[in-house]
């Protein structure tokens, strides 16, 4: 539906901070502010072909121009299917990310690499990046990689990870990045599912001062992957004890120097696949989400440009791994498509101490900083002293992604990191959406702590009644979040399983893309993402959002993190259980539990008060830092024998502790 100011009153919202404009005296990418956003937004959903057709012509470089911006023409999901974009056009992703900037400005920094150890990084210019990309592209061609083949990537956060992705798409192949923290079993499953024949990895990797034996994990995985022909190994630590399979394993540095520094890009068609990425698996078996080339690139480009207001000389620091969609879209593609500089950070926020992010921001004068709430909770818990005494005045935009950000954490981010002068952009999106779908536009949108605010161009969100599927119109409604129309960067299918794609996203509510998340639209039109639909607890007919209860709990000064789930209750249908990790040990846990219950009663209401509080030392999290609530639900239900796939957990040992604590306390 078109947006109009009458329905968006912004009474309780916060204006873009004045400091945002002082910190960048130039013109924002949407110079006309909110009025211009509304105008562009309405154009984008009324005539998506025209809107995105023009943007695609203006901002992407085409080898062959496209003939039709969208097929089928018109709008909406037609006949239960999605749409295709930029038909008959041909382009190359690496050309758009590298060549066109390198040709104009070869000495401009493309990548600032911050190694795990401070002061061991380096800068890679666009000119250097182009040479490396071309050379690795030739290495891959020599290894028999062809257009349409998948290549598995299991690399730490080093510049060579970017080189690798761009080299793969340069020859029209498909990258399938597996986060280099996943176990051998998870890697094996993904290599087999994607049918990758080549794996690119490093000898070892370093994170937080610890060594991870990357190549050994690959070797273990490959025991059950007979079709893998070659492993290309980047030398990161130079360990002398490296297992080596002659004939199969090849050194990156030995192969790269065999090739000339330029090779032409292989153009692909707009809808050709550029990559697969398996979702993080918080809700079930990972799915190989398949993305297009042109539509994906346009989404990453436009959101980086508008949501983060990225301009030519900006330096973006997305503190996320290239193993996740956030790394794909906002470490690699978004910044480079815009010709900006991207920070590639290998380490952790806690090494050598909790000021590492702020050291990096200060040192490189980062203009946009982007991170997940899980890291912010960690840093907030560590104490504000680590943020103070850093010059963070270069920052204009502070992004958040991955989970709802509790108001308490939002305020901390705003006050201690942004110092009231940065625009906080809580970006809501998914692996499947390719780029931000609900997010404030920096320098333009008003915000409210905890709300992702308004839809991005081309996204027509609706709130549906979960059971009837009926659209809930107007403001002040709550239900499940769906999107009424296809947009260029949405996933095209689940790898080799279009039927699963339809079942998961397009069939649950006919005519809509179903996000799987619950959401509300408040009286001023702001969207609030309430967490996955499975994460809603129904107590005596009250539909409670677990995210909201968790936000209340974190207001208590002893709470580090919490996860709320429902469990069956004879009286109320469901009851609320809260798993809580405290910032420090306490002498009187019973007293603390009482206080926590009081906090929720006070913040939300008596009906939301947890019936059960379980104190644990940590929560089960995926490797991208998301809490896996389904495990907690299973444990509470006494179904610990059927926990399902927990291979994507970063701290599997915590499960045993949780099981025994629940047995004792519940
Ligand atoms: P899987 O789909 O395998 O269960 P996942 O959904 O965790 O894994 P991602 O695609 O990385 O994998 O995450 C997308 C989900 O993250 C969204 O559906 C939403 O639940 C949550 N999310 C992301 N950003 C936000 C945000 N800004 N606010 C609230 N929730 C968010
Ligand atoms: Mg998901």
Automatic annotation (TrEMBL):
<dbReference type="GO" id="GO:0016208">
    <property type="term" value="F:AMP binding"/>
</dbReference>
<feature type="domain" description="AMP-binding enzyme C-terminal">
    <location>
        <begin position="548"/>
        <end position="626"/>
    </location>
</feature>
<dbReference type="GO" id="GO:0019427">
    <property type="term" value="P:acetyl-CoA biosynthetic process from acetate"/>
</dbReference>
<dbReference type="InterPro" id="IPR025110">
    <property type="entry name" value="AMP-bd_C"/>
</dbReference>
<dbReference type="GO" id="GO:0019654">
    <property type="term" value="P:acetate fermentation"/>
</dbReference>
<keyword id="KW-0436">Ligase</keyword>
<feature type="compositionally biased region" description="Basic and acidic residues">
    <location>
        <begin position="1"/>
        <end position="13"/>
    </location>
</feature>
<feature type="region of interest" description="Disordered">
    <location>
        <begin position="1"/>
        <end position="20"/>
    </location>
</feature>
<keyword id="KW-0067">ATP-binding</keyword>
<dbReference type="Pfam" id="PF16177">
    <property type="entry name" value="ACAS_N"/>
</dbReference>
<dbReference type="GO" id="GO:0005524">
    <property type="term" value="F:ATP binding"/>
</dbReference>
<dbReference type="InterPro" id="IPR011904">
    <property type="entry name" value="Ac_CoA_lig"/>
</dbReference>
<dbReference type="InterPro" id="IPR032387">
    <property type="entry name" value="ACAS_N"/>
</dbReference>
<dbReference type="GO" id="GO:0005829">
    <property type="term" value="C:cytosol"/>
</dbReference>
<comment type="similarity">
    <text>Belongs to the ATP-dependent AMP-binding enzyme family.</text>
</comment>
<dbReference type="InterPro" id="IPR045851">
    <property type="entry name" value="AMP-bd_C_sf"/>
</dbReference>
<dbReference type="InterPro" id="IPR042099">
    <property type="entry name" value="ANL_N_sf"/>
</dbReference>
<keyword id="KW-0547">Nucleotide-binding</keyword>
<dbReference type="Pfam" id="PF00501">
    <property type="entry name" value="AMP-binding"/>
</dbReference>
<dbReference type="InterPro" id="IPR000873">
    <property type="entry name" value="AMP-dep_synth/lig_dom"/>
</dbReference>
<dbReference type="InterPro" id="IPR020845">
    <property type="entry name" value="AMP-binding_CS"/>
</dbReference>
<feature type="domain" description="Acetyl-coenzyme A synthetase N-terminal">
    <location>
        <begin position="37"/>
        <end position="97"/>
    </location>
</feature>
<feature type="domain" description="AMP-dependent synthetase/ligase">
    <location>
        <begin position="99"/>
        <end position="491"/>
    </location>
</feature>
<dbReference type="GO" id="GO:0016880">
    <property type="term" value="F:acid-ammonia (or amide) ligase activity"/>
</dbReference>
<dbReference type="Pfam" id="PF13193">
    <property type="entry name" value="AMP-binding_C"/>
</dbReference>
<dbReference type="GO" id="GO:0003987">
    <property type="term" value="F:acetate-CoA ligase activity"/>
</dbReference>
<protein>
    <recommendedName>
        <fullName>Acetyl-coenzyme A synthetase</fullName>
        <ecNumber>6.2.1.1</ecNumber>
    </recommendedName>
</protein>
